[in-house]
């Protein structure tokens, strides 16, 4: 008992010493450098990548100046990650997916986390954005009377791929509009009823996408729409970037890789915008009204908060980001089909929000990262590892079990959903507020310094708890 | 002219008539109580005033303008604010945020201002926080602004509710059993707070209250309800002697003894 408390005290002291002052700077930079180096030298190592990614968390928790934190984060996201990402393009894909889903989760967080409206069909807005660009950015407008799957002569693109930029903005607007159109009849409902209606709406959109190949072929049905155009990347610019990037990467960067980079950066820009918007709205009259509605609708309306309008704001804000991300998604994949917008996708985004911390912006981002990495890397990595074992002659010593007898059914990638279920249950028991729980802003005017000190104490407690 | 005027207000729930043809007049600047046994329809009347229920019959005028058909938030914007019988704070918001929500209708910022963060926005936010602190000081809540509302002790939560209601800068404040669950000391403090609300802020007060010490001590006029109807109205001294009131509270036998 005594030893344990002493041990705890020493660890706490150690963490405290390591997480502040000059030591913290050195630690953070060293860790990032180590991660980068590892990923750079062994582009296929899962552990190296995890170390690299986790340095983002370190930057978040370590107590260094705001400017330093921000510049380290920018260095990682804008310089280091693209370099190691081009060396192993799979990392860039992971980073891209994290950004896409972080933006989606942040959008859903406005609806579920801030305003407390359980939306189980969020992915519908994503689908609306994706199909918006899939339709106009492909040959589909000239195929309206064609049978799905056939390519009659005269099919051609109706607009240039550079309209993509305009359509990202349009996706924002159309998403918001869809949110309002759905919200108007639905937002008088509460709690469970709202959840069920949004669930239904999500399915309606998916089924529409599936079936709107007749009478007019708008969505090309279950086969999906392809090819979808991308904006053209100007060759002189690419060549200019190559001068710097090629030596860093160690080989010539291909045009396809440039597209990967482009969409990664585009998603990153959207994420930054979403974070800014979410933070600003949260810290305003609108955000307070949302939280008030979440806490107690009757009291909120009695204080003069117009319920329906505020809920519509939340729905529209959340939906607009999904719409914009949908456009980006369609362009990056050059292919869109109803499968990508299943109910499980909505649940997936929701579980990122819950896992990370409902209502907490950094939490939700971490939630998205954890889910994506678990999905794309850890589980796949384990599967790969097991299948390699299976092909070898290795035997588990004591029980004398040959790895090659291991059933294919035990492939970890097949247990993805179960694993998420277990993780969510464990989280709900031990950390119900999420990985990084939401905290209320300190607002007292006087004692700015005291409030700041308190904030820092709060962080220290978080770090050691 | 009367600040609040209700005529023939009737509210039914299925076969039950909770408020029946109720007439009620409240002059500006008064402190008035509504009393009556449980289930007499007092809270239903409050809810009809604040738009939570819509009465089947009757008219309600506030400051000469009709209230019926308005939503709760519109009524709040017109200048009627309230507290609740069971405290209804925004538990996971800080005390200051609770009060800032009370100011919702007074703040001019919208979506655009919140996103663009111009100077006007920052000034309004800063000013609102200063104001919130003055309301906190007024109800005696200094120094707990950053506490989550749910973490405060019961008595302080009651005060936050009053501060939040005052932050809307109402002309009429409805208090639904504001001293329920308080000890005599807290009750005395609450009563003097309510007096200051009227005297210093000029807010008209309408209370629902069971504690007779509070009712008799603070009210300038009292309305008594029973079974959804007004059975008496008058000065505290008159109400105390009114046989129908005694009967409603204590039953017929006792009132006959009292009359004898």
- Computed CA radius of gyration of chain B, to the nearest angstrom: 20 Å
What is the CATH class name of the largest domain in chain B? Alpha Beta
- How many DSSP-defined strands of chain B? 10
CATH topology of the largest domain in chain B: Rossmann fold
Q: What structural class is derived from the secondary structure elements of chain B?
A: alpha/beta
* Mean of residue pLDDT values of chain B: 93
How many β strands of chain A by DSSP?
2
- Count up the domains of chain A: 2
Low-confidence region ranges of chain B: none
Shape of chain B: globular
Please give the alpha-carbon distance between the first and last residues of chain A: 18 Å
- Count interface residues per chain for the largest interface: A-B, 32 and 45 residues
Question: How is the secondary structure organized here?
Answer:
The complex is a heterodimer of chains A (465) and B (260).
Chain A lengths: L1 H17 L2 H21 L4 H16 L4 H22 L1 H26 L8 H14 L27 H23 L4 H21 L23 H15 L5 H28 L2 H11 L1 H6 L4 H27 L9 H14 L4 H31 L3 E2 L4 E2 L13 H15 L17 H17 L1
Antiparallel strand pairs in A: 1-2
Chain B lengths: L1 E12 L2 E12 L3 E5 L6 H8 L7 E6 L2 E2 L5 H7 L1 E3 L12 H8 L8 H6 L2 H21 L14 H14 L4 E5 L7 H18 L2 E5 L3 H7 L2 E6 L2 E6 L1 H6 L1 H8 L1 H8 L1
Parallel strand pairs in B: 3-8, 3-9, 6-7, 7-8
Antiparallel strand pairs in B: 1-2, 1-4, 4-5, 9-10
Helix pairs in contact in B: 3-6, 5-6, 10-11
Can you walk me through this structure?
The complex is a heterodimer of chains A (465) and B (260). In chain A, helix 10 (255-282) runs antiparallel to helix 13 and helix 11 (285-295) crosses helix 13 (307-333). Chain A has helices spanning 2-18, 21-41, 46-61, 66-87, 89-114, 123-136, 164-186, 191-211, 235-249, 255-282, 285-295, 297-302, 307-333, 343-356, 361-391, 416-430, 448-464, and strands at residues 395-396, 401-402. The longest helix of chain A has 31 residues, at 361-391. Helix content of chain A is 70%, strand content 1%. Chain A has a two-stranded antiparallel ribbon with strand order 1-2. Chain A has 465 residues and is mainly α. Chain A folds into two domains: 1-87; 88-464, Orthogonal Bundle (ABC transporter involved in vitamin B12 uptake, BtuC). With 260 residues, chain B is α/β, with parallel strands linked by helices. Chain B folds into two domains: 2-79 and 170-259, Rossmann fold (3-Layer(aba) Sandwich); 93-167, no CATH class. Chain B contains eleven helices and ten strands. In chain B, the strands form two sheets. Chain B has a six-stranded mixed sheet, with helices on both faces. The longest helix of chain B has 21 residues, at 119-139. The chains are: A mainly alpha (465), B alpha/beta (260). At the A-B interface, helix 10, helix 11 and helix 12 of A face helix 2, helix 3, helix 4 and helix 5 of B.
């Amino acid at each position: 008992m005594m030893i344990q408390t002493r041990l705890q005290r020493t660890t706490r002291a150690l963490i405290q010493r390591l997480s502040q002052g000059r030591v913290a700077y050195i630690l953070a930079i060293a860790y990032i450098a180590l991660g980068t180096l590892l990923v750079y030298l062994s582009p296929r190592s899962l552990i190296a990548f995890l170390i690299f990614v986790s340095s983002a968390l370190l930057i978040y928790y370590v107590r260094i100046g705001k400017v330093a934190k921000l510049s380290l984060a920018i260095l990682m996201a804008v310089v280091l990650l693209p370099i190691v990402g081009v060396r192993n393009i799979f990392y860039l894909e992971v980073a891209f997916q994290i950004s896409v889903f972080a933006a989606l989760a942040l959008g859903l967080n406005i609806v579920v986390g801030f305003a407390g409206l359980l939306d189980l069909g969020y992915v519908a807005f994503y689908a609306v954005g994706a199909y918006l660009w899939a339709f106009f950015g492909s040959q589909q407008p000239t195929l309206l009377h064609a049978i799905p799957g056939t390519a009659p002569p005269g099919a051609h693109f109706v607009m240039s791929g550079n309209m993509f930029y305009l359509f990202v903005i349009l996706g924002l607007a159309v998403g918001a509009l869809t949110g309002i159109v759905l919200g108007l009849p639905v937002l008088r409902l509460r709690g469970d009823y709202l959840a069920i209606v949004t669930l239904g709406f999500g399915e309606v959109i998916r089924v529409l996408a599936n079936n709107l190949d007749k009478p007019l072929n708008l969505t090309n049905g279950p086969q999906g729409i392809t090819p979808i155009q991308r904006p053209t990347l100007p060759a002189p610019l690419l060549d200019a970037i190559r001068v710097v990037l090629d030596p860093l990467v160690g080989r010539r960067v291909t045009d396809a890789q440039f597209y990967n980079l482009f969409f990664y950066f585009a998603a990153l820009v959207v994420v930054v915008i979403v974070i800014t918007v979410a933070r600003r709205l949260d810290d305003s009259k609108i955000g307070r009204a949302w939280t008030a509605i979440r806490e107690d609708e009757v009291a909120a309306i009695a204080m003069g908060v117009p319920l329906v309008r505020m809920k519509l704001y939340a729905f529209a804000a959340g939906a607009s980001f999904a719409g914009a991300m949908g456009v980006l998604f369609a362009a990056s994949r050059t292919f869109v089909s109803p499968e990508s917008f299943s109910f499980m996708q909505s649940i997936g985004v929701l579980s990122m929000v819950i896992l990370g911390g409902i209502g907490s912006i950094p939490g939700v981002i971490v939630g998205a990262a954890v889910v994506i990495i678990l999905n794309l890397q850890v589980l796949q990595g384990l599967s790969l590892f097991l299948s390699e074992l299976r092909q070898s002659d290795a035997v588990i010593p004591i029980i004398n079990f040959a790895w090659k007898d291991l059933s294919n059914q035990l492939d970890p990638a097949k247990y993805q959903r179960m694993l998420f279920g277990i993780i969510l249950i464990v989280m709900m028991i031990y950390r119900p507020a999420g990985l990084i729980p939401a905290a209320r802003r300190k607002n007292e005017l006087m004692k700015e310094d005291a409030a700041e000190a308190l904030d820092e104490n709060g962080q220290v407690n978080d770090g050691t708890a | 002219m009367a600040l609040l005027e209700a005529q023939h207000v009737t509210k039914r729930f299925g076969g039950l008539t909770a408020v029946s043809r109720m007439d009620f007049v409240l002059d500006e600047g008064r402190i008035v109580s509504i009393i009556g046994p449980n289930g007499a329809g007092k809270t239903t009347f409050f809810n009809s005033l604040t738009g939570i229920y819509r009465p089947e019959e009757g008219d309600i005028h506030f400051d000469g303008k009709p209230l019926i058909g308005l939503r709760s938030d519109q009524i709040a914007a017109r200048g009627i604010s309230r507290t609740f019988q069971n405290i209804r704070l925004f538990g996971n918001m800080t005390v200051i945020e609770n009060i800032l929500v009370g100011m919702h209708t007074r703040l001019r910022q919208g979506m655009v201002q919140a996103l663009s963060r111009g100077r006007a926005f920052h000034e309004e936010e800063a000013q609102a926080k200063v104001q919130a602190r003055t309301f906190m000081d007024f109800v005696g809540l200094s120094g707990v602004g950053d506490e989550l509302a749910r973490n405060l002790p019961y008595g302080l939560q009651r005060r936050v509710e009053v501060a939040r209601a005052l932050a809307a800068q109402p002309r009429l404040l409805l208090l639904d059993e504001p001293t329920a669950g308080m000890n005599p000391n807290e009750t005395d403090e609450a009563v003097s707070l309510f007096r200051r609300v009227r005297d210093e802020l000029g807010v008209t007060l309408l209370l629902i209250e069971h504690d007779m010490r509070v009712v008799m001590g603070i009210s300038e006029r009292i309305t008594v309800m029973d079974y959804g109807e007004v059975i008496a109205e008058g000065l505290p001294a008159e109400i105390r002697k009114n046989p129908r009131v005694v009967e409603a509270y204590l039953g017929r036998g006792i009132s006959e003894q009292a009359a004898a």
